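Annotators were shown the component list below and the corresponding predicted structure, then asked to write short factual statements about the assembly.
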Amino acid sequence: MNKGRLEAFSDGVLAVIITIMVLEMKSPHGTSLASLGSVIPVFLTYILSFVYIAIYWNNHHHLLHATQRVNGATLWANLHLLFWLSLVPFTTAWMGENHFDSWPVAVYGVVLLLAAVAYFVLTKTLISLHGRGSTLARSIGRDKKGKISIVIYAAAVPLAFVRSWIAGACYIVVAIMWLIPDPRIEKKVAESTEGNG
Amino acid sequence: MNKGRLEAFSDGVLAVIITIMVLEMKSPHGTSLASLGSVIPVFLTYILSFVYIAIYWNNHHHLLHATQRVNGATLWANLHLLFWLSLVPFTTAWMGENHFDSWPVAVYGVVLLLAAVAYFVLTKTLISLHGRGSTLARSIGRDKKGKISIVIYAAAVPLAFVRSWIAGACYIVVAIMWLIPDPRIEKKVAESTEGNG
Amino acid sequence: MNKGRLEAFSDGVLAVIITIMVLEMKSPHGTSLASLGSVIPVFLTYILSFVYIAIYWNNHHHLLHATQRVNGATLWANLHLLFWLSLVPFTTAWMGENHFDSWPVAVYGVVLLLAAVAYFVLTKTLISLHGRGSTLARSIGRDKKGKISIVIYAAAVPLAFVRSWIAGACYIVVAIMWLIPDPRIEKKVAESTEGNG
Amino acid sequence: MNKGRLEAFSDGVLAVIITIMVLEMKSPHGTSLASLGSVIPVFLTYILSFVYIAIYWNNHHHLLHATQRVNGATLWANLHLLFWLSLVPFTTAWMGENHFDSWPVAVYGVVLLLAAVAYFVLTKTLISLHGRGSTLARSIGRDKKGKISIVIYAAAVPLAFVRSWIAGACYIVVAIMWLIPDPRIEKKVAESTEGNG
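Structure shown to annotators:
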């Protein structure tokens, strides 16, 4: 079974998710600067969610690049990941429209947590298919970032009921952690695909 | 005529269907747990529909993988399938917003029934193009699951007027039947594509 | 310049158009059969528009299949076609919600007319790039169906103000004309691509 | 790392952006010509935004065509461009619904300006990856049009508060500048890809 359509379908779903979120940013009724200001909380949430979907697309791209083959379990592990990511437009809208109240902020984190777990399951499924000694397994390595992210999300959800901005800060920290380039990974991928071009 | 664009277009349509359904899950007005609770019936329907579209994508992926060529009849049989699937966001929204009342549940089943029939017609079109002895025909086999699904949907629609939860249970049973991995198919596909990979 | 991305982008746009139209079919407020009945005019319009977008995708698929190369003019001729087709969800919603009143029916026809003209321009652009004696030019031939469609649309628009059902009948006739398989084209495409497959 | 999925994802996002904008063009309540007239400002804005997204797709297509490879920085520079373009449906809706008032017109320009800057950054990222003497660098050249566009947008934003139609005229002028074919570029691309087919 080849990975081409898995990539194409995932690209399609992620492209739609990242774009329809903007539909939740309703154009304000007035035309003053103040009326534009009312959109700011939704806009900030939109930026955060855009960055998160972009990070997932990026990581997915790297992961599938190192993948040689897929099977039925992989397809479902991937669909499971897409399911949680497909809820991001909903949690984005709810959080943005309610100025970062506790429940919306916590639910936003729950969806991020479950998406991160789904991504972890996807990597495990791929590793068990390719073997522990495979290029794929080595390029994933110990997946420190993935595990740290899950811990931070799990901490952020209850913290949303103490101070919702603490949870928000956690989400931003995780996003920044992923945005910082990780030269080791690019190097490993480059090495492992040398000559496959 | 090659199958590349047929796959690309189907992937695009299925990716949009699976993702825009979430737009029907309107973010609740309040920020309490109770207001989130009001979304639960829509959310449960969303999960069911997501799983169904995912199953169709998965089966479509396997079917087209074993396909060698397509003709005009195939293109239209495929568009016919996409037509019924494109109605899923509508029936999902109607059923979810109305807490599983009889008519919405029955109409949800009618669309599933017609999509299953359309899929059956697509397989027949492909078999008649490739011949009864082809790899494709053998990998489809007697299509027991497809036929059982059609029978269950046909029974569920009238049952929705007796007790709508019975119909709902039927839809869940069919989804689970498809989710259980079927080692024979993967094996047959693996055998038949050996050396083409 | 290769045609791959032109096809991919067109597939994407057509997939989104054909799918978001269903968002205009709002789920009815009640749960009775009567409330479902109120959706029927929108549903009938949806079927018609779905068939039209499907026909365009089909024809576009055949046209690009016979195409060897594209240039800047082709890209813009193609975007021009996509522009008019992107208005179909709007005209579909307006016509469906207003039970086939004269103006919505006429405007629906104007968009079909301009899309047909845009398709005609696209074929001319491709022929002038490939030359009159090319496989592409021969597979398009005299394009009788394309020209007849334009004439019928041009007649239907004013007829919408006499009796809107006459215009509606014209749109259905054109759709049926394209749905009837045309063995000559498939044969010619098959011949011309023999050995390229 | 290959550019295939970068192109596929960008095509997906641009296809969704260009198509969902039409959802902001709500079908009018009445069925008279007057009620259609009320849609005209939104329609004119839609045309302008459609042309802009089409130009970006076109330029992106040419840019990636001349690209040999991509790295992590390229992926993020590309996502940064897609972010600003994803806001176009929002600014289109706000400007169209408010008959070209100053603030909406200025914000429309700010998004165009930031998208143009993001495109400029993307070209610089690609040039630094391929080297100053590369085919890619030569095909981009001094990028006069890109720089002129940025200057015009930067001038148009404050001018929106003097007379909003002046800013609107600026946006139209830039669009026309890009629509006029530039034979040098096509020639250079043709030369540089000769034999790569």
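Statements collected:
1. The interface with chain D takes residues 1-2, 5, 8-9, 12-13, 15-17, 20, 23-24, 71-73, 75-76, 79, 82-83, 86-87, 89-90, 93-94, 97-98, 101-104, 107 of chain C (CB under 8 Å).
2. Confidence is low (pLDDT under 50) at residues 193-197 of chain C.
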